[in-house]
Amino acid sequence: MTLSKSLCTTLVVAASLGLAACAGPSLPDREAPRAIANVKDGNLLVPGNHIRITVFNEPNLSGEFIIDSTGNLAMPLIGDITAAGVTTQALAGRIADKIRGENYLRDPRVTVESSSLRPVYVMGEVRGPGEFLYIDGMTVLSAIARAGGYDYRAREGQVLLIRQEDGKPVDYRAEEYTPVQPGDIVRVLERRF
Q: Which parts of the sequence belong to the Soluble ligand binding domain (predicted)?
């Protein structure tokens, strides 16, 4: 009788552990933010970005530039400008202020375009995981669609979003219509049978 009880207990524990293993990795409690800063203004610039600066009617100040590893941009006539961590629109304002401050032009009109945007990475249970160009307004679902859609093993709608914040990766639970940012990692989890 004791052997029978201990066998039953062992089977119950084994079954419980087996079911727990089938649950797969769990999602974090923290939900991804629904609002994205600076989507309208563009992406935040980072070291290594290639940008095109146009100062209207000033070819000596216009051209293609690369943000260096310290986050600065070296421009002719006006010197270094901090470019990392701001939008293209904010950088245009900084450049215009510096041109004005150097008394080079009274009312400079400056535009800044980023020609290299950080990608979005999609991995996990999708048909074609990889690196994809970020497009304004991109959501988790549109990123998954760019990766060929859900794989047959996917836990549809259960997505882990990994985002860099203050230089550290932060895991979020995301829904299909959660907006993504450049540099985000979208990981579709595997369902268990």
A: 120-168
* Cα 174 from Cα 158, distance rounded (Å): 7
CB atoms under 10 Å from CB of 28, counted, come to 14
Q: What is the C-alpha separation between 20 and 147, in angstroms, rounded?
A: 30
User: Tell me: the pLDDT tens digits for 139-192?
Assistant: 999 999 999 999 999 999 889 999 988 778 999 999 999 999 888 999 999 987
For the entire predicted model, the pTM comes to 0.56
What is the secondary structure of 141-170 as a DSSP string? Answer: HHHHHHTTSB-TTEEEEEEEEEEEETTEEE
Contacts of residue 19, defined as CB under 8 A and 6 or more positions apart, other chains included, come to: none
- Region of 127 (left: φ > 0; alpha: ψ -120 to 50; beta: rest) is alpha
